[in-house]
Write a structure and sequence with these properties.
Number of helices: 2
Order of helices and strands: EEHH
Radius of gyration: 14 Å
Strand content: under 5%
Shape: globular
Mean pLDDT: 93
C-alpha cells in the first residue's frame, strides 16, 4: 500500500512555501494550518512568543515534514481531550 495520502505539496499556492525551508520539493502542505497549535506549549514544535505574547510558529517545520504525519495524527487524542475541557 502506498502512503501518498500522507503528503501533499501545493506548489501553486501563492504562499508556497509558507516557511523558510532548504527543501521546498519535500515541503508538506497537508497540515497547512497546524492542528497542534491549540496545544500551546505542548505542541512539540519550534515556536516562540512575540513581545505581545502571541505564539509565533514561523520557524517551525514540524507539520511540514513528510515524516511527521503519524506523529501529528497521534496527538489528535490530546486535541480531543483539550476540546472536552472547554
Amino acid at each position: 500500500m502506498t502512503c501518498n495520502y500522507k503528503f501533499f505539496s501545493h506548489t501553486a499556492c501563492e504562499y508556497f512555501p509558507c516557511h523558510k525551508t532548504a527543501d521546498a520539493a519535500d515541503f508538506n502542505c497537508l497540515f497547512c494550518y497546524c492542528p497542534l497549535y491549540a496545544l500551546g506549549e505542548d505542541c512539540g514544535g519550534d515556536f516562540s512568543y512575540t513581545q505581545k505574547g502571541v505564539k509565533d510558529c514561523s520557524a517551525c517545520l514540524l507539520p511540514h515534514r513528510r515524516e511527521n504525519y503519524d506523529a501529528i495524527n497521534a496527538r489528535f487524542a490530546a486535541l480531543a481531550a483539550l476540546a472536552k475541557k472547554k
